[in-house]
Write a structure and sequence with these properties.
The chain has 410 residues and is an alpha+beta fold. Among the domains are: 117 residues, Beta-clip-like; 56 residues, no CATH class; 106 residues, no CATH class. It has 13 helices and 15 strands. A 3-stranded antiparallel beta sheet has the order 3-9-8, with no helix packed on it.
């Protein structure tokens, strides 16, 4: 039996495409669904891509096959290299069912002779590039600028990059809960994403799992606006993830998780005060100044919680906060602390300020301090978390778990 003949590529010509440079144009009409060609390029893994491209924006001809392999048409002379971008292109890509190293192009609609052949490169392509001409989407929008862990591995963020807080333990979650509401919500969603406890459906629904265990409660929130999900719901889900994935495995007695949950439930009102303060009060000279100013506010606003034995008025509180916002020198700041110690014990005031400063430092995110080497993942993953923590090695490899808190980095 004669082997089946290979399909014939569409007849294509290369010519000038205006601001896009060169482009590929159909030399004959193509019906919707017609196979046009395969994508011809070098098969490269992550290591080879990084060796070839120091600057990610220079990798203009990569098509991803899977998490580990890409086809690169940088050095190809095949006409598929000249398929330009269009938001509503007339080509679509399909992965081969028989060859895992192959990507094919098909006509997504009827194409006239002389029409340029284009396809949508996708938001990821424009991450390091300017806005494409003729595209209605705003690729500067945060939803298109988020950096996936996979991309971070391929092109690690440069030293000095400040990454937002992703709460992965009880201390970081406490710091996240003290952030202004929009930042708090975003941090909690990043926490849930990390632990695999948030899923966004094609219908725009947000499915949240309260914890990481297989039998964890699932809650589905309708609508595309994640801001409609209550902060309390996100807090409960993120707290359950931290308890089940971090605290319980580290302390089988349950004492640590019980202490954390008791703290969280007792701090509802106090955290609301902190979020409100941080949403409306500009930052001071340093996180130490920020902490002293917030401590003065909390002692005035919530005297019973902080065992204040000598209450003070709003005007007195404002005067202390104004002193914090002075020239940033040590003596005025120390004088404010000494004034606060007239209203509550020195131990309580100093401890409160230390805690708040730590939360400010953590809430400011982390700064990438190294782009070399891949640290080993410390410890072992509990058996019931293996399916959830599949991304941990990638995040560690990307440096996303090497936090270096620096109050001077902001």
């Amino acid at each position: 039996m004669e082997p089946e003949a290979a399909p014939v590529e569409a007849r294509v010509t290369i010519r000038d495409a205006g601001v896009k440079g060169k482009g590929a144009f159909a030399m004959e009409p193509l019906r919707a669904g017609t196979w046009v060609s395969r994508y011809v390029g070098d098969l490269l893994d992550d290591v080879a891509i990084k060796e070839r491209y120091e600057d990610p924006s220079a990798a203009a001809y990569l098509l991803e096959l899977n998490d580990d392999l890409c086809l690169d048409a940088q050095n190809s002379s095949h006409f598929s290299r000249y398929f330009n971008h269009a938001e509503f292109g007339n080509l679509e890509t399909r992965f081969s069912d028989v060859d895992p190293h192959r990507i094919d192009f098909f006509a997504s609609r009827d194409i006239d002779a002389g029409e340029e052949l284009t396809f949508d490169y996708g938001p990821g392509y424009w991450r390091y590039r300017g806005q494409p001409d003729g595209d209605s989407r705003n690729f500067s929008d945060p939803i298109y600028r988020e950096r996936s862990p996979e991309l971070s591995i391929l092109f690690p963020p440069p030293v000095g990059t400040v990454l937002p807080l992703v709460p992965l333990n009880a201390l970081e979650l406490k710091a996240a809960l003290a952030l202004p509401v929009p930042e708090c919500r975003a941090a909690l969603l990043r926490c849930l994403d990390f632990f695999g406890a948030a899923n966004r459906t094609v219908d725009g629904e947000l499915e949240v799992r309260v914890g990481v265990k297989a039998d964890a409660e699932h809650i589905v929130y309708g609508g595309e606006d994640e801001a409609s999900v209550s902060l309390a719901s996100l807090e409960r889900a993120a707290s359950s993830c931290i308890v089940q994935a971090v605290l319980d495995p580290a302390d089988p007695s349950g004492a640590a998780s019980h202490e954390f949950e008791s703290w969280r439930l007792s701090m509802t009102s106090e955290l609301e005060l902190m979020r409100g303060w941080r949403a409306r009060v500009p930052r001071f000279a340093s996180t130490r100044h920020d902490a002293v100013g917030l401590a003065a506010f909390l002692l005035w606003k919530s005297p019973a919680t902080h065992e204040v034995h000598l209450t003070f008025t709003r005007d007195e509180c404002n005067a202390l906060i104004s002193a914090v916002d002075g020239d940033g020198q040590a003596p005025p700041l120390e004088s404010v602390l000494m004034a606060l110690e007239q209203h509550a014990s020195e131990e309580h005031v100093r401890g409160l300020v230390t805690m708040l400063q730590q939360w400010y430092d953590i809430g400011d995110g982390c700064t990438v301090v190294s782009d070399g080497g891949v640290p080993a993942l410390a410890g072992t993953v509990p058996w019931h978390l293996k399916s959830v923590w599949q991304r941990v090695p990638r995040l560690v490899k990307a440096g996303l778990l090497q936090y270096h808190y620096d109050a001077n980095s902001r």
